[in-house]
From TrEMBL:
The lineage of its organism: Bacteria, Bacillati, Bacillota, Bacilli, Bacillales. The keyword Glycoprotein does not apply. The keyword Signal applies. This is S-layer homology domain-containing protein. GO terms for biological process: proteolysis. Residues 34-98, 99-162, 163-225 form the SLH domain. Keywords: Hydrolase, Protease, Serine protease, Signal. Residues 572-588 have a biased composition (Low complexity). InterPro entries: Peptidase_S1_PA (IPR009003), Peptidase_S1C (IPR001940), SLH_dom (IPR001119), WD40/YVTN_repeat-like_dom_sf (IPR015943). GO terms for molecular function: serine-type endopeptidase activity.
């Protein structure tokens, strides 16, 4: 048993007490009884599922806005040492006691006193050498690792290891032993560069995840003798293999029995993949009585349970004293959340089967018995059609896929039929069906509902929901890639992505089943045979494919349930641009024209920029060591000789000075005064190692009277100077800085992570910092699975569109607030216009809101060697290298 028994009466493993983190100046309150949706986190955010599990089980509370009632968690806020002590004890189920006072700075009348003193009594915390605990000091990642190892040393098998788990954790690092022990069990993990960064201040989300992982590894010294009947799965006979949360394979289960307390079971079978959590407390006597129909326990502790009812009679619960308690209002199928209150077990949330299941960490498949096999799904191909679009001359212009959803309606992607004069559907039998017109469409979500002129005799497909999909689920795609009718491919769901357009949220399903041209609009099935999405776009590498959630189509169909098929109204495809629900540009919505071009002969361009307020382009030649000032309207050009080899260029905020960052010299910066047309000064800053200067590209930025310079070492470092005195400013050490971008108010900056230039760390991630005087404070981080956000190409900028709260880096688009990944473009993006709703890469232009390509001759960059692209109002400037020259092409884009 635990060593804690002398202090507490009952130890509840897992998530069993209703304690909350207390934060000053923020109202903390319990969650709503009918919802615990965290508004400031999304499913792809670090710690999302762990925090949801903690909140759902009442182990911690979030913050409730007193006006709106919305629940938030503030995952990126820092955690004080006192707050962490309370969180740790609360999650472990340890009730704080009135014990002897040890720390001189812990007053007995403070809210945290009993938590800190109890944790000290249990040897979880030790304090500082001066006898203080420093409760208001923010806790570091290393300190958390030490506390966790001490707290769980009797219930988690920490190895006695001296193996160094992180390159920045040596034997001299404080808490090195505990860090290596916790890391060996994957309770703690490092950053994308492989480092742990022990001295970094921990965030709320990091703290929760570390505790959560430790709880999942707990093993009571005395195994439970409790058996919970009919837990987790319906299809025991179909289970081929079972894995624990640590990835260890166990024999196939014939009876679910978990003696350890908290583990994840991934149950793999041909029919279905389930990823549900089953937790049985060894002190609990809670049993669910099965009836002739199915009732599954998805999560169970002595205080909290999740019960999935599928065609079940009202279940009964046996309490510790043997009394049978009949639960009321459990007659409908669905997911029930139960909590053991002072007045017995009560329902505090319910999700009906027809609405899908929204609880985290539960299987989201249909709540009905289903023995669908892969062959059953393939047999549905008869309801999948090939869609061919024709132009005004009767020539086919595009081909895609669609599927039958009623006796007169076919669903597909809007881009398959966009701009067409006529559309026809070809059945598997070869029969050609003429499309009468478009019934509904939404360009933002790329969905369309088509009506056929004749009755469709094939069986409509069953439509599911985004709520029926979970990461890891098996899926099957059927479509017509490259004209190969009804090709079947299978894979798994590798991610769930949300994005917002015009204050409306859309859902994407990322999956690994291969698709290519012609697959667009085809159905994506789950293993219960339901269509959960429409395959929309795929990429040539990385098994990166996306489907649009089916929910939008389902909503449309509800409008026509009582309308006879021949009476459903349509609009012709060529009239679709005038549809009242079309709120997105078509290719004909722009007037695109070439303004002119300007050739700069014999230049080895290191960097360039466009003056936002004047008709000037500034360009630096690294070979000739020259600054070029070019008026692109009258084509006049002036040349300023430079003393040193330039690498990067920036314009001051007031437009009066140019900052040129140099390499291969101790004079790091040259400042050119545009008003006086003279070099103002050369700023000396010794770079200790010039070994790799031939490879580096240094960056310079002037913001809020500070000059930020990224010195292009192997892991580029950020340094700063006062823009008035030119003296160095002491800032926190930040390395691995790629391209940067600043907010308009200069309170934040973002960068993508760079390590190496021709080798080294190929993955990347996005960092967000807040600026408070000379303090630079990490404000957020977005980790995106490799290879979707890579270090290369090194020349791609990071773009901030503040009016849309969007951040673009490489091919990825993020929410600039919480850094959640919203969408992925087909290629890295080099320029963006919020007003025009267009972004451009080196292979073409794309719509900002849905990543679809804009087909226009002016955006065909075939044969170009693009060095730079940028927007200025409604003009796109393209810097194209032709031999030893740079040709600057100006394109005017006007929305009709």
């Amino acid at each position: 048993m635990r060593k804690y028994l002398s202090i507490i009466c009952i130890i509840v493993l897992g998530l069993g007490l209703t304690n909350s983190l207390m934060f000053e100046k923020v109202h903390a309150a319990t969650k709503s009884t009918n919802s615990y949706t965290i508004t400031d986190m999304r499913s792809n955010n670090f710690g999302f599922y762990e925090i949801n599990d903690f909140i759902a089980s009442d182990s911690i509370d979030g913050f409730v806005d007193t006006k709106s009632g919305k629940l938030s968690f503030k995952p990126n806020d820092k955690v004080t040492r006192a707050q962490f002590a309370k969180l740790l004890l609360s999650a472990m189920g340890i009730t704080p006691q009135k014990v002897d006072q040890k720390f001189s700075d812990v007053s007995p009348n403070k809210w945290y006193a009993d938590y800190i003193n109890t944790a000290q009594k249990l040897d979880i915390i030790s304090g500082y050498k001066d006898g203080k605990f420093k409760p208001s000091e923010n806790i570091t990642r290393g300190q958390i690792a030490a506390m966790i190892v001490r707290a769980f040393d009797k219930t988690v098998d920490f190895p006695e290891t001296s193996i160094q788990q992180f390159p920045d954790v040596s034997s001299k690092t404080t808490f090195a032993k505990e860090i290596n022990q916790a890391a060996s069990l994957k309770i703690i993990s490092g950053y994308g560069d492989g480092q742990f960064k022990s001295a970094n201040l921990a965030t709320r989300s990091q703290a929760v995840v570390m505790i959560y992982r430790a709880l999942s590894d707990e093993k009571p010294s005395k195994a439970s003798n409790q058996v919970v009947e009919n837990v987790v799965m319906n299809y025991v006979d179909d289970v081929e293999s079972t894995f624990t949360s640590t990835g260890i394979e166990t024999p196939p289960l014939t009876k679910v029995y978990n003696k350890y307390g908290s583990e994840y079971f991934n149950l793999f079978s041909l029919q279905r993949v389930e990823n549900t959590k089953n937790q049985i407390q060894h002190n609990s006597k809670l049993l669910l009585k099965d009836s002739e129909r199915k009732t599954n326990v998805l999560f169970l502790s002595d205080r909290y349970a999740e019960i999935l009812v599928s065609n079940a009679s009202t279940p009964e619960i046996t309490t510790n004293d043997g009394k049978v308690v009949k639960l009321e209002n459990l007659n409908a199928n669905g997911l029930y959340f139960l909590k053991n209150t002072a007045n017995g077990w009560k329902i505090y949330n319910y999700s009906a089967a027809s609405d899908g299941i929204s609880s985290p960490r539960t299987n989201k498949s249909s709540n009905v018995e289903n023995n669908t096999t892969l062959k059953d799904i393939i047999s549905k191909e008869k309801s999948v059609v090939t869609l061919v679009s024709y132009d005004d001359f009767g020539q086919p212009v595009s081909q895609g896929s669609g599927f039958i959803v009623s006796d007169r309606l076919i669903a597909s992607n809007y881009h398959v039929v966009e701009g067409s004069k006529r559309v026809e559907a070809i059945l598997q039998s070869g029969e050609e069906i003429e499309i009468e017109g478009i019934v509904e469409y939404d360009v933002d979500s790329d969905l369309v509902l088509l009506k056929s002129k004749s009755v469709l005799k094939e069986t409509p497909l069953k439509l599911g929901s985004y709520q029926m999909v979970e990461k890891g689920d098996s899926v099957v795609a059927i479509g017509n890639p490259e004209g190969l009718t009804n090709t079947v491919s299978n894979g798994i769901v590798s991610g769930l992505r949300d994005f917002m357009i015009n204050n409306k949220t859309y859902h994407l399903i990322q999956f690994t089943a291969p698709i290519t041209f012609g697959s667009s609009g085809g159905p994506l099935f789950n293993m219960d045979g339901y269509v959960v999405g429409l395959t929309s776009m795929g990429y040539d590498s990385g098994n990166l494919n996306f489907a649009i959630a089916i929910d939008g189509v389902k909503n449309w169909l509800q409008k026509y349930q009582s309308v006879a098929g021949n009476n459903i109204p349509v609009k012709n495809p060529e009239q679709s641009d005038s549809s009242e629900n079309n709120n997105s540009p078509s290719d004909q919505e722009y007037t695109i024209s070439n303004i002119d071009s300007l050739r700069i002969s014999g230049i080895d361009m290191a960097d360039s920029l466009i003056d936002p307020n004047k008709p000037y382009i500034y360009m630096i030649d690294k070979t000739s060591r020259e600054l070029l000032i070019i008026n692109y309207v009258n084509k006049e050009k002036s040349i300023v000789p430079l003393n040193y080899e330039p690498s990067g260029l920036s314009l001051s905020e007031d437009g009066r000075k140019l900052f040129i960052v140099n390499r291969k010299t101790k004079f790091l910066l040259s400042i050119y005064n545009l008003e006086k047309n003279e070099m103002e000064t050369h700023l000396e800053y010794e770079i200790l190692d010039y070994t790799h200067d031939d490879n580096v590209h240094r960056h310079v930025y002037e913001r809020d009277n500070k000059i930020f310079v990224v010195i292009g070492t192997w892991a580029p470092k950020l340094i700063a100077f006062n823009a008035v005195t030119y003296q160095p400013i002491e800032i926190p050490n930040i390395e691995g800085v790629g391209s940067m971008v600043f907010s308009n108010d200069n309170k934040h900056f973002y960068y993508w992570y760079q390590y190496g230039w021709s080798a080294g760390w190929a993955a990347s991630y996005i960092m967000k910092y807040s600026i408070d005087g000379n303090n630079l404070i990490e404000d957020g981080r977005a980790d995106v699975d490799y290879p979707y956000l890579t270090r290369d190409p090194l020349d791609s900028p990071i773009i901030l569109l503040e009016d849309k709260n969007l951040l673009i880096s490489k091919a990825c688009i993020f929410d600039s607030g919480d850094l959640s990944l919203l969408n992925i473009f087909p290629e890295p993006i080099y320029a963006a216009s919020s007003d025009l709703n267009i972004v451009v890469g080196k292979n073409g232009a794309y719509r900002l809101h849905n990543t679809l390509k804009v087909e226009a001759k002016a955006f065909n960059f075939t044969g170009y060697d693009i060095q730079k692209m940028d927007f200025k109002q409604n003009e796109l400037l393209i810097f194209n290298k032709q031999g030893s020259d740079i040709v600057i092409q100006r394109i005017k884009i006007v929305k009709k």
